[in-house]
Predict the 3D structure of the following.
Amino acid sequence: VKGIGIPYNAATKFIDEKISFGLGEKTAIYYRDEQITYIELQKCVNKVGYALKELGIEAENRVLLVCYDSPEFITSFYGSIKIGAVPIPVNTMMKPGDYEYYLNKSRAKALIIHEDLWENISAFRDKFLYLQHVIIISDDREKLSGRDYQYWELIKSAPDNVKTSYTCGDDAAFWLFSSGSTGEAKGVIHLQHDMEYALNTYAQEVLQITEDDICFSASKLFFAYGLGGGMYFPLGAGASTVLLSERPLPEKVLSIIETYKPTIFFGVPTLYGSIMDYVERSGNQYDLSSLRICTSAGEALPEAFLKRWKELFGIDILDGIGSTEALHIYISNRIHDIRPGTSGKVVPGYEAKVVDEDGNEVGPNTVGDLLIKGDSLTPGYWNLHTLNKEKIIGEWFATGDKYYKDEDGYYTYYGRADDMLKIGGIWVSPVEVENCLVEHQAVLEIAVVGETTEEGLTLLKAYVVLKDGYSPCDELTNELVNYAKSKLARYKFPRVIEYIDELPKTSSGKIQRFRLRV
Ligand code: 3UK
């Protein structure tokens, strides 16, 4: 047949090949008290693919996934890909307006969603312009469909085989949404071959992952970082993954590690910090000796954390920088080659350069803009023609990060080129938080910035100018915090509020956020 190219489908590589390579009976997923083998996983992937096809989902149709970390996340993801549809896993902590945006922007025809999350947004259904089918994942597997579909009911009746779509390596496989500084999220497209590229580079070369590994990612699967660490790295290597559907609180994370004995752990700096605080405060002993390596990404890992973690648990943390656009980590420290306080060296398979405003590469120890190159990079953002022209420069991609490289090739993070903040490893737009709080009756003006803690992490801080008739007090501070919590996703409220008389501004009236940064 002409015009279909060399067939390549990521579900073949990450699921079906495992069975043809003899790993069918091996545990792919540990979830609560279940152990799911590769063959069981494959069957469910096929059933989801079949069921979606039956509902009329075709190749290139988008499917939005609002799922907790669970086997259903993985079956929905690969089940969609197998039939050529394009899954879009999104953050489960968002507000109804965000889901309206994701659904309409992507024109997703189907939504696969956990029951309690659907209950939060089902009232807004009329606003979901392209949505045709809702598939609900309930804990009660016997629950029958009402107006919508029940995941388990669909699965039960679907055959466990489905034909793989005629995709090629350069077809879109999935999207991820990444927050932008204006508050509008950008749809980052990823191709069928991208996951294999990240597997063969970072996971193989840096983590040296093998079939014997058990991965546990505290970072959720809907983040690009967690998607690799908790799903396609272990599956691609024929290893196993441990899934945690709940919030990764220190106590929970520690108990998961002791119970399932993972060998590789993926976390963000704030989590490492809160685990260490928790362990030191509680005085309890935890046995994390199953871990051979821990990785950190999302924001720079404070140097002190590395030492403290090593003293507490005897394990190294590998800091590395990745992004949603690159899919995973492209500069990283190595096992036995860690330079604390840096992001490490370029991962084999990628190239990096630091350039000045004219795009010329700068010498060592000079700060500039970080550009990267590598085959897992996004072909572009959905429907953002102008931005694509700014960010994609031939084979190079402008990360938006300031970096410098030393004589030995280690890269050190030097901040963002824009106002975006990383709070707990997750993007927060100061503008979005400001726009929310300025609606509060007491607030005249507000500027939100990142405040660096003693340890080197970033906290969200709001400088507030009050309207006449209001004066600063603890009650008002609490009220403002609760206001933000009720309107925004839960990680976006300011931890610190400081009242000031006026905001620093340019002559044209633009708030000078940089003057407020400390
Ligand atoms: C920042 C870091 C310093 C940096 C991610 C691993 O974080 C991930 O993706 P996002 O799209 O954000 C990307 C941006 O976050 N950043 C990430 N890691 C570091 N800054 N040191 C680090 N180690 O500004 C970068 O441009 O949310 C991380 C794997 C996949 C990912 N998507």
